[in-house]
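Ticket #4471: structure output looks truncated?

Reporter: J.K.
Steps to reproduce: submitted the chain below (283 residues) through the standard prediction queue, then opened the result file.
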Amino acid sequence: MEAAMSQCIFLAKSALLSAMVLTAAGPLAAGTPFIILASTTSTEQSGLFQHIVPQFTARTGIEVRVVAVGTGQAFAIGRRGDADALLVHHRAGEEQFVAGGYGSERRDVMYNDFVLIGPRADPAGVRQTDSIRKALVRIAESNSAFASRGDDSGTHRKELELWSTARIKPSGRWYRQLGSGMGPTLNTAAAMDAYVLADRGTWLSFRNRQDLVIVFEGDEALLNAYGSIPVNPERFGWVKADLARQWHDWLVAPDGQAAIAEYRIDGEPLFFPVSTIAGGRLE
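Returned output as attached by the reporter:
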């Protein structure tokens, strides 16, 4: 009974998404095969899907309908069987998702990095530091405004890990948890002249920068890896496993990796395909 009810909910959501035209390739003919992809706001707001999904659809005839949420929410959608595949960026969470039997496997797809954004005047003096840990310590000690996504996204999870590494529990009026996606969080940070952790892809595509600039980058701790996971058909018999597998395979095949590498803004790449790493795997 519970499985049947879950399947009905999934089918109802699928029908709703069909009417919402969430695919980057635009509306297709009735009856076009499609998958639902739970992914992050960073991949959607950066414009990546508008670039790569039409290429995948042209090759396979499969439409990809993206539900862009925080990584934590994407995991929750996958755990209900309400998506066919995930493309997210929190390695520990991804491995836990697969180990729990919700996903069939995880593959490295691409990476970029996180950057610390802040006011051009840099009131905390983070430009003078040589590590993200020291940069965060300066922000906390100076009570400089910091805008946190606060939404259990991959970026928010990374931010909390970095605070923990710095042995800081951020709190107080200087630390604002917004509960919003990357774009809206950057907008708020711009209005507040606040520091904020962002993925490089969304920052490069963000136009309302006002007085914000990159104030710290390049620490190995800021690596941002993305993984693809098909939802496990053995647990959720209604997922479109064959179609999801074609998407999963294409992302790491030469055509998919080339499509990722081709996407640029003002000549600068936003994501780097994992095939550029020796062995094709991020450790």
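Triage note (M.O.): checked the attachment and the full token line is present. The first helix runs from residue 2 to 20.
Status: closed, working as intended.
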